[in-house]
Write a structure and sequence with these properties.
The complex is a heterodimer. By secondary structure, chain A is of the alpha+beta class. Chain A is built from two helices and three strands. Chain A is flat and about 55 Å long. Chain B has one domain: Ferritin. The chains are: A alpha+beta, B mainly alpha.
């Protein structure tokens, strides 16, 4: 039966102020049921305060075969990391 | 009022309170056990967990209510003794709660009708003069709001779904509607608790329950069956044959190994 139901990806915000993180997926007939299923499957141990669901088929994903051209070029550009600055002593909590 | 009269009154009211708590607790316990029977058999993994969650909420409510009942009873029993060492005639749950799971539609219809009932009961009890009962009801109300959301959305999904799901949902309602008369039939226990401000008056709750049910049934394109005059008396300990079979399984371990723990 659940094989007939579309798949939804589930995102949970663990605490106010934090971002929603992908935690898994559920089968459901509609978005409302997906929220309920996500609540029942992924927040049983107080993991969250907010749930997003989105149909898996609505997610556009990058092609793993293109990973080389998409992500390799960043490898030799270490200067993009903000690690070349001396941090003044006065600056706390950076 | 003489001292003796006052004492008799207190005893009478304590007895009514005990019986009232047992009814509420037994209804949650029996319904929770029924839902637990679905575990491992649900149509989908997600529903399996969903039903188990409802079951655990209900057993949790039963635990709080029966613990309180056991204290009022004052015979040294605890909630486990009440759950596992009473026989069917001593259980005073609503007859509707003990009805077998049947198919998924039957389970959801039973759930929906009782969820709507518990919503009204717990809302009323949240402002009970009995502060301990009010606290239990306030906690249970949050859970019950979710239960009702869960079961009513299933009612709509099934009723307004395919031809088969509609037929099954309608059959389910037709099959158990005769047990709903008991939900709001007040007896001396209910009267006494209402008069003492402990419990809401059932006659006040009935129209609200009815309106809530009608609203969902309309959306679900389901027909509300006609009321039947025959009344069931689960809350007086007179049960359908199903409760005994259910208890045999529920109580098996504690009856075989009394006091077993893990």
């Amino acid at each position: 039966m659940s094989n007939d139901w579309p798949l939804f990806e589930v995102f949970i915000r663990s605490r106010a102020g934090l971002e929603h993180k992908h935690v898994g997926s559920v089968h459901a007939t509609d978005a409302r049921m997906a929220i309920e299923h996500a609540r029942d499957v992924y927040t049983r141990r107080q993991e969250g305060v907010s749930i997003w669901v989105v149909r898996s088929s609505d997610i556009m994903a990058s092609d793993p075969a293109e990973a080389d051209s998409l992500f390799e070029p960043a490898r030799d550009k270490v200067y993009r990391h903000p690690t070349f600055y001396a941090i003044p002593d006065e600056v706390k909590n950076l | 009022m003489s001292g003796a009269d006052a004492q008799t009154n207190t005893e009478a009211s304590n007895d009514a309170r005990l019986r009232y708590l047992l009814r509420l607790g037994d209804t949650s316990l029996v319904l929770g056990q029924r839902l637990g029977e679905w575990v491992g058999h649900s149509p989908a993994l997600e529903e399996d967990l969903g039903l188990a969650n409802l079951a655990l909420d209900l057993v949790g409510q039963a635990r709080l209510l029966l613990t309180y009942a056991a204290e009022i009873e004052g015979k040294g029993r605890d909630e486990d003794a009440l759950a596992f060492f009473r026989d069917a005639p001593q259980f005073t749950n609503l007859t509707l709660a003990e009805q077998p799971n049947g198919d998924f539609a039957q389970t959801m219809v039973r759930q929906f009708l009782i969820d709507a009932w518990q919503l009204e009961i717990y809302e009323g009890l949240a402002s009970s003069t009995d502060t301990r009962l009010a606290a239990i009801a306030t906690k249970a109300l949050k859970e019950t709001r979710y239960h009702f959301r869960f079961s009513s959305s299933w009612l709509v999904r099934l009723g307004d779904g395919t031809e088969e799901s509609h037929r099954r949902a309608q059959n389910a309602i037709d099959g158990v509607w005769r047990f709903t008369d008991e939900l709001f039939a007040a007896d001396e226990v209910d009267e006494q608790m209402a008069a003492a401000g402990v419990a809401p008056r059932l006659t006040d709750l009935q129209p609200r329950w009815s309106a809530r049910i009608d609203e969902v049934l309309r959306e679900a394109t389901l027909r509300r069956p006609a009321n039947v005059s025959y009344q069931w008396h689960g809350k007086r300990g007179v049960h359908t044959e199903h409760l005994g079979h259910m208890l045999t399984e529920m109580q098996h371990l504690q009856r075989t190994y009394p006091g077993a723990q893990w």
